[in-house]
Amino acid sequence: MKKISFLLNGEKKEFEIDPNERLLGLLRRNGYKGTKYGCLEGACGTCTVIMDGKAVDSCMVFAFQAEGREITTIESLDKENEPHEIQKALIEEGAVQCGYCTPGIVLSAKAMFDENPTPDDETIKIQMDGNFCRCTGYEKIWSAMKKISAKHRGDKK
Amino acid sequence: MKSVEKMKVVNKSVKKIDALALSQGKHLFTGDLTPPNALYIKMLWSPHPHAKIKSIDLSDAEKMPGVKCVLYHGNVPRIPHCTAGQGYPEPSPYDTFMFDTKVRFVGDRVAAVAAETAEQAIDALDAIKVEYELLTPVFDYDEALKEGAPIIHDEKDAFVPIPIPFEPQKNIVAKVGMKVGDFEKGMNEADYTFEQTFETSYAQHCPMEGYISWAQLDPYGRIIITTSTQVPFHTRRIVARTLDIPVQKLRVIKPRIGGGFGCKQEMLLEDVVAMVTLRTKRPAFWALTRDEVFRSGRTRHPMRIKVQFGVKKNGDLSALGLDIINNTGAYGGHGLTVMSCAGSRVIPLYHVENINFDAKSIYTNLPVCGAYRGFGATQAYFAVESMLDVMAEKINMDPLEFRKRIHILTGESHPAFEALGEGKPGTPMNIGSCSLDECINKGANEIGWNKRTPHTAKSGRYRRGLGMSIHMQGSSVPEIDMGAASIKMNDDGSFNLLVGATDLGTGSDTVLAQIAAEELETTVDKFIVYSSDTDMTPFDVGAYASSTTYLSGEAVRKTAEKVKKQILKVGAELLHKKIEEVDVCDAHVVALDGSSKVSYQDIALYSLYENNQFQIAAIDSHITHKSPPPFAAHFVEIEVDTETGKIKVLKYVAAVDCGTAINPQLCEGQTEGALLNGISYALTEEYRFDANGRMTNPSFSSYNIFSMRDKPEIKSIIVPSYEETGPFGAKSVSEISINGAMPAIANALYNATGARIYKAPFTQERVWRAIQETKK
Description:
The complex is a heterodimer of chains A (about 160) and B (about 775). By secondary structure, chain A is of the alpha+beta class. Chain A has 2 domains: about 80 residues, Beta-grasp domain (Ubiquitin-like (UB roll)); about 80 residues, [2Fe-2S]-binding domain (DNA polymerase, domain 1), CATH 1.10.150. Helices cover about 35% and strands about 15% of the residues of chain A. Chain A contains 5 helices and 5 strands. In chain A, strands 2-1-5-3-4 form a 5-stranded mixed β-sheet, covered by helices on one side. Chain B has 19 helices and 26 strands. Chain B is globular. The chains are: A alpha+beta (about 160), B alpha+beta (about 775). At the A-B interface, helix 2, helix 3, helix 4 and helix 5 of A face helix 1 and helix 17 of B.
């Protein structure tokens, strides 16, 4: 066992890790179960977390690679009294069906909007392309993203 | 009955009651709830498509660190059963054993190991020594049916629990036939006759949450199974049979489910987790990897469909023949029902009196097929709706006008409803609601059908085409499926709504709460919905056959009606009125003369604590006597690269008549999810096999499902109708819209290029080849 530390949802945390373990396994083992297991091949995006500002598949990151990084999981958004605007938009648009992909979608979207509050259609498609959803046909996720972007554009003016 | 316009909760896009918690990643799924001390289970799967297990040596594996239990055919009960979660007794063969001395496909069970960690279990699998005697495998429709073909199910103890044709010595799982009128006469009377054969592929549902289950003992020695299932009550029954223990000893809990689409209408992991827990007295956990989901989970039946049509110059159909071979893979669950639905969910859509339907389900040494959204209709519509366009061209009629001429209408019946059931005769019925013409008109308008030109007018490398198709499905299985609900009132005027109906992500908990709230004149937020738990909730067959809204929804409405009567009685007592002088309104009982009212909270407190005390509560159940079809018209515009064969879907329109949309936004969600799955199935999704019957693309990176970037412009249009037998006029919506993409895109491909395609999915190579055919 090896010890690593990183910033998890704004707090410095220390974990004992197995050298072969993925970040996904480490997070779930320690109770951060909003990060879901989907494919373990970096394809479906249900295990998305934000690492140093970028959305990554935590199944494709070894736990030791998190050393010294800043990791954000879905649980970070729970600290506020209000749901995050991305969560609100997804719920409002009816984009949450089985909800298994939703935490990953929220975090991919958060990384996108944190970097660019007003992404255009093409940017949304590319940024959200790594998150599979088999329930919605993406239409309502798509419209939620577009509405947030439009709202930000309105706020800027 | 209130008119839809006057409804306060129904036909409103109420937000899904679990959406916030789901979006916050709360611990709601099977894998989030696993006890920390659970044993990990891993399965040794067969590497061979067809073999006898001559010997298994477990001695090394059992001594490996952390190993607590090894299961194989030598140490578990041998009880034939069916893994398909269907009504009892199932119209499927009991041809499966927890573990068998024979393996029948690459991915079949050989032995299970339970250990302290997953790594220890995997290491122990490597230490199991198995000696196989290889048998000749059968992969092909024709090979399977050939005289003297290897027999896949040669075990003596397999049987069918109800009398259906089961001929395992010929690799035949089931046969279904239907003859209506005189098919030959109809073909002879036709001005034109057509015959063509279509083929569809193996496909997987790909829910984001794969198969996952765990079990533990409660303090009284009962086995509690928490599992990602669409059928908790069927699972309890099947596990009890398989383990040879009483149903009473089992409790099956379904938490939130990460999608199913039919693949979880199955008992797939639960017998093993229960057995390990029974043996070790420890919690036991098993989740399939994505690779295992593909290889060993359930899949869509590939079909070969010969379709024959006779048509008159005026557009009347004079004969329809469907000759289907349905590959069920290595085990026969759903084999009969899926092919029956290829007829019963398709043929009644059309005015035709001379029908010949002949279908066989066969075993092969390939992955096991099961229920998949669309359930046979998807495959058959590809053939039938493609041929309608071929015929429309021949008789020089617009495909849209042709369909309007021949489709079934409100008030009409169809002989196929009565002739074709699920392992028994069907149920005669009249169509109570059909807005298909409106679906066709609205969809045509949205896609711009009037701008459509024939393929002969098109040239250049990139060519655009428009295609359409029409569809029906069912709503529940009549006279077989049953749903039930219970409602009790709490101190503050809130209610517990307990349903066996199984929300697998569709939003049925929300829909059922809306139905209860409408009946009880209150709001959805007053309902605490719990589904489903075999100890706590009343029975329900589960989430399949497009049944929850129509069947379980009516059970909920009836239950709410009973509760309402009790509330009225107490309210009247409190208001010193006669019961006929009061009614419910906005969570109050009100005097009809407007003189007084009393809140649900005061009624609850009074009935629980004050006078003439009793628990305001009710339970009721429902079975249906018909299966009213929802209807849909699908339209698509595509662009074809004639040099590479690549099809790009530009716009897809689905107009759906699902009766009253209890929750229009959720109905759109069902429609959009289904149609995109349909497009993905039509264009890319396909199992590829090596010469040994081993799937070669069992991953998301090689089995291509659509992502956000692949999504075309989508428009879903909900067209109302009113189905008298459904709760507040509702029919089903969940399955129908997966059926459109294959025929609509095939028809659009023809419209773009003049190329007709008969085999799905429409990969670039197949499309390119079809285009080359037109140049000959």
